[in-house]
Amino acid sequence: MTAATFRYPGSLAIAVAEVDAMSDGRVELGLGAGLVRGRTRGPTAFPFPPWRNAFEKLEEQFAIITGLWGTKVGETFSYSGKHYSLNR
Questions:
Q1: Who's near 71: CB < 8 A, 6+ residues apart?
Q2: C-alpha Rg value of the chain to the nearest Å
Q3: Phi, psi for 39 (deg, rounded to 5)
Q4: 86 within 8 A of 66, measured Cβ to Cβ
Q5: What is the pTM of this model?
Q6: Hey, which bits of 4-50 come out as E strands?
Q7: Cα–Cα–Cα angle for 8, 14, 20, nearest 5°?
Q8: What is the SS3 assignment for 20-32?
Q9: What whole-number distance in Å separates Cα of residue 71 and Cα of residue 74?
Q10: Helix 51-69 and helix 9-22: axis angle, to 10°?
């Protein structure tokens, strides 16, 4: 389980896919908006985003992660959104 405000979607998709491969398909990704105030402060110092931005980021992360996971070997995936862009 992680929050959309804590990770970049491309690196998160790769990390989860690698652990899934190592564990023979036993990984499940939980992804939320990250709007619990106490969890976005403290030693990590992640900024607490406005509600709208957090949900926009969450929606874009879903699109990127599922897009990357659905891309066949040898093909590329691109995405351009308000918060994230992937171009290859």
A1: 77
A2: 14
A3: -90, -10
A4: no
A5: 0.82
A6: 31-32
A7: 130
A8: HHHCCCCCCCCEE
A9: 8
A10: 50
Give the pLDDT of residue 31.
Answer: 93
- Could you give the 3-state DSSP secondary structure of residue 16? helix
The pair of structure tokens assigned to 88 is 């290859």
Paired tokens of 43: 């030693």
One-letter amino acid at 84 equals Y
> Which tokens hold the place of 24?
């023979």
Hey, what amino acid is at 8? Y
How many CA atoms lie less than 13 Å away from 47 in the CB half-sphere? 5
Would you state the pLDDT for residue 80? 96
For the segment 9-57, what is each residue's pLDDT rounded down to a tens digit? 999 999 999 999 999 999 999 998 877 765 555 556 666 667 788 899 9
Task: Report the alpha-carbon distance of residue 56 to residue 85 in Å, rounded.
Answer: 13
